[in-house]
Amino acid sequence: MAITVKDFAKTLKISDKALIDRMQKAGLSHSKESDEITPADKQALLKFLKGAKSTPSKSVTSESGVKVTSKGKASLSTSSKKSYSDNIEAKRAAASEQLKEQQIKREEQLKEAVKQKQENRKSKFKKTDVQQITPVNVKDQLSSAVNAYKKKEINFDDSKHQFEPPKEFIKKDVEVPETVQVGDLAKSMAVKGGEVVKNLMSLGVVANINDFIDQETAILVVEEIGHNGIAIKEENLEEDMANLIQYKDEAKSRPAVITVMGHVDHGKTTLLDFIRKTKVVDGEAGGITQHIGAYEVKTSKGRLTFIDTPGHAAFSSMRARGANTTDIVVLVVAANDGIKPQTEEAINHAKAAGVSIVVAINKVDLDGADIEKVKGDLASKDLTPEDWGGNIQMKPISALKGDGIEELLESISLEAELLELKAHYEGAAQGVVIESELDKFRGAVSTLLIQNGTLKVGDLVVSGNTIGKIKSIVNSDGQKIKTAGPSAAVEVLGLNSVPTSGDQFQVVKNEKQAREIAEFRVIKEKEKKLLKQKDESVGDLFETLGQEQRKVLNVIIKTDVGGTCEAINSALFELGNEKAKVKIVSSGVGGISESDANLAVAVDSIIIGFNVRADNTAKKIIESESIPLSYHSIIYELLDDVKARMSGLLDPIVKEIIVGTAEVLEVFNSPKFGQVAGCNVIEGNVLRNKPVRVLRDEIVIFEGELNSLRRFKEDVNEVKNGNECGMGIKNYKDIKPGDKIEVFDRKEEAQVI
Q1: Is 707 exposed, middle or buried (0-12, 13-18, 19+ CB in 10 A)?
Q2: Contact 29, 22 (CB under 8 A)
Q3: What value does the mean pLDDT take over residues 463-486?
Q4: What is the DSSP string of 729-753?
């Protein structure tokens, strides 16, 4: 049945006019209460209500005088503010006059009472009676007079002067932070929490008073209740921190940072290996780079910093991070394989980052190599070679033999000269975390790429919510150094925890400043997690209504380095479908600990270790609780393992197979078996131990099982096609000639992700 605007407004418990107004602001064409609403319209409306931060602010003033901006903010118009202010001032003046009148009247009544008392005393102390009064009598009379005055009730009509609370709703400004708890939002508006929860439900958001909601949603609720929601920008320590770094020296030329990108097994690491004269590729599991490596290389063209990125599909985020921290991208394409999905992805990352591209056409010495075809494919991706009239340098090389490497380095140096790369050398260092890991003996180990300033041993560094004093700096040759300048890729020790790969790092002046920044980031991270958890648990109501509940595989991930952990998380998130999904309960760097094992027990989770192992305490818990645990060193195997486990969660698919069909020729009554159908098997075979259906005019009228199957006078278990038989159906006595008896079987098939 079609749902109209009027029906949907009743469901949301708002007026038709208010709903039409919101739908039109969302870009929908509905204008009448009889207009129909489709599921797509509902989705568009909900996305609009969630708010779009990037929308430029435009404001309109409603009939009630409320100015509403396109970002969901609202405020009183100038005329409404003036009217509201005048009304309040008038009420205050009236109340003040009433209080003054009340005070004057009370004073007059008090004076009258005192005057009356004095007259009474005069009448009692007449001159003729003075000589009859003793001191005792005077004391008694005064005492009784005072008591009488105290007991005397003076009736005031206070009802005329009682303060009357305002009967009309008073609109007020409500400040809304970036994230706010539902209960706190209710207190700021002086309403019950249930009213806020109710309004959230009408907007399609399920939350209780303890949940956190974002600023845009909170402003919508404030305005729905009738107040003005004012978005406040909280103190941003990040901006303050960025302003702390001011370099006074003049920027000087610096070495180029080059990222090597491309598809898996196209020879990226082999190329870098030849340049560095080492055997990095031999140490990679399966010959595949599992994390980013950053190396400083001294070439005949000067010093260069190379960053090697993985080519596997799961490492998209790491390639993106590599492109965003580099000056030049060397795109490696195998001449015998051409452009592949990760090649295109690398091109897109490089273009998005706005960096220069130099193409290395590798494996030109192998059979099937076609350099011109590779150039043509790249030209179709807007990478036109120089010899074709374009501006992209493309050099044929053999990374294994070293052919063309010198020419490639010349192309890179030429590109670096054109870029005129510069940086500040004096002052506090700042840059980006390339990689991080938790070493069993050395603690948190991080690879940093310095972009400005000079990093020194003893510097206090902040990265994300990680802080620490640099204890050791090691260059890519394994040598300990005291300082490192711009474009240097170095390994450092001393941070209190493993920083997130891709985060910015910065040297600060003192520990107090470092802790303030770290605590600020911890709070923000918690708020983000709370919002994310709520979104995951609740989801979009319009999308989930009526859908089958998805199976969830809880996973705890522990890896050797931070970049790999991030890439695995991203890959697992994409594995799910409409029937099953992966929920990453916890992920981190380092070995599998006792706390990981206990968490797995609590949430019924599996544990996956990538290049890490469980300690002895964790092993005991894992064995005693039978926690599923698997170790991997190659990304393909890890993903296949998780897919298999997700498939095991799904209910099997039950399929029915028709085994045979028999046509009823005649019906007999047997004293032993009751009604027996004389049949001819016209398709397949009839089996006694399989379920059957009775069909009349090709319509199923009964489903059950056989209680007898006879051929001639013998009981049999099977009758083949073309033979006649007698069939007795259990608990069914309405069989007729012309009916068909269908014998079928049920088979279960496991679902596969």
Answers
A1: middle
A2: no
A3: 88
A4: ETT-----TT-EEEEEEEEEE----
Average pLDDT score, the chain: 78
Number of domains in the chain: 6
Whether residue 506 is contained in a domain is answered as yes
**pLDDT over threshold 70, residue 25:** yes
| One-letter identity of residue 482 | K
Phi, psi angles (nearest 5°) of residue 662: -125, 140
Please report, for residues 341, 371, 403, the alpha-carbon distance to residue 364 in angstroms, rounded to integers and kept in the order given.
20, 7, 9
Tell me how far the alpha carbon of residue 281 is from its chain's centroid. 35
- The phi, psi pair for 24, rounded to 5°, reads -70, -35
pLDDT band at 530 (very low <50, low <70, confident <90, very high): low
pTM across the whole model: 0.54
Q: Do 641 and 657 fall within a single domain?
A: no
Rounded-to-integer distance, Cα 100 and Cα 120, Å: 31
Per-residue DSSP letter, 442: T
Q: Nearest Cα to 52, choosing from 24, 20, 26?
A: 26
Q: Distances in Å between the alpha carbon of 426 and those of 245, 504, 743?
A: 11, 19, 87
Which of the two residues, 477 and 742, has the higher pLDDT score?
Answer: 742
Cα–Cα distance measured from residue 235 to residue 213, given in angstroms and rounded to the nearest whole number: 19
Structure tokens at 427: 């002052």
**pLDDT score recorded for residue 540:** 44
CB 704 within 8 A of CB 741: no
Half-sphere exposure of 137 (CA within 13 A, CB side): 8
Cα gap 355→322, rounded to integer Å: 11
Distance in angstroms (rounded) separating the CA atoms of residues 476 and 491 = 8
Q: Do residues 716 and 618 share a domain? A: no
* Three-state secondary structure call for residue 705: strand
Check pLDDT > 80 for residue 187: yes
Alpha helices in 226-256 (DSSP H): 237-244
pLDDT of res. 630:
92
Residue 348 lies in a domain: yes
356-362 sheet: strands from edge to edge: 293-299, 302-308, 257-262, 328-334, 356-362, 393-396
* Separation between Cα atoms, residue 561 and residue 515, nearest integer Å: 25
CA–CA gap between residue 471 and residue 323 (Å, rounded): 29
pLDDT tens-digit map of 54-70? 444 444 444 334 344 43
Give Cα 596 distance to the centre of its chain: 22
Judgement on whether residues 346 and 455 belong to the same structural domain of the protein: no
Helix or strand run (H / E) with residue 102: helix 78-124
Question: What pLDDT, on the 0 to 100 scale, is given for residue 82?
Answer: 47
In which domain, by residue range, is 587 found?
539-649
The average pLDDT across 30-36 equals 83
Residue 263 shares a structural domain with residue 405? yes
Same-domain status, 473 and 571: no
